[in-house]
Amino acid sequence: MNNIKSIFTIKDLENISGIKAHTIRIWEKRYNLLSPERTDTNIRYYSSENLQKLLNVVLLNNNNIKISKIAEMSDDTIILKARELAFKMAVNDEAVNSLKLAMFQFDKTLFNKTYNRLMQRKSFREVFQDVFVPFLDHVGLLWQTDTLLPAHEHFISNLIVQKIQINIEKLEHLVSNSNVTYVLFLPENEIHELGLLYLNYELILRGYETIYLGQSLPLDNLEYFFKSKSKTCFITSMTVQPFEDKIIEYFSKIEEELEGTGHELIAFGRKAMEVEDVNFKADIKVYSSLKVFLNKL
Which pTM value belongs to this model? Predict the structure, then answer.
């Protein structure tokens, strides 16, 4: 736990909470809600306790409790009331805030309570697309702004992976009605598999035969499938891999394997779009995101 980020700037707090820095300062001065400290060079910073309190305050305030009333509560009361509200939440935006709170507090109970409450009113597809996707988009923003540590992302990602796997297991009784086999994999050193894992669920739900190979797969491991006589559609997600100087080479190698076989490749994600304008001889399609591909499926 020593590697977990414990010092935050006011910009970090703004990125995480969605509350403007100006408003945070007003709450701080007028209501004494937060207690920033200062470095030796007089730069203000906030502790993880400040961050967690702010998230709880925002949750209460978004549920029509005035800041002046919240300021009168003890820290323990704020935590208690915020948890009670989080447990009851089913509205998408509030659920996303609850998941953020669970992530930064490493609170598995809050995550599961939020998920179970959502599942009482939504299908798993709705929960993933209406709540998890916006939440993961926000996690991506926090990552880009250096607000998030790997420990936070790994914690919440593993919990979401568990839910996807549970729902995939529920579909085991479905019989494939497709003459195409979908082989799902991530490029070598690519570990961001949530989107691909959820796509596996969607394909099985729709009656397709899938083979899920998972994270960080060397390209030569696909040789068996490249040589298959039956129709195969390879699907990969590219978030950080391959690197810019390797992307063309990577697709060219796949193109050589696919040309004349009748097989196809579908790649989605930010890195895949780097070859959007390339004219391949093989059947290769790229999409900017999982959502865009699902709309085409």
Answer: 0.69
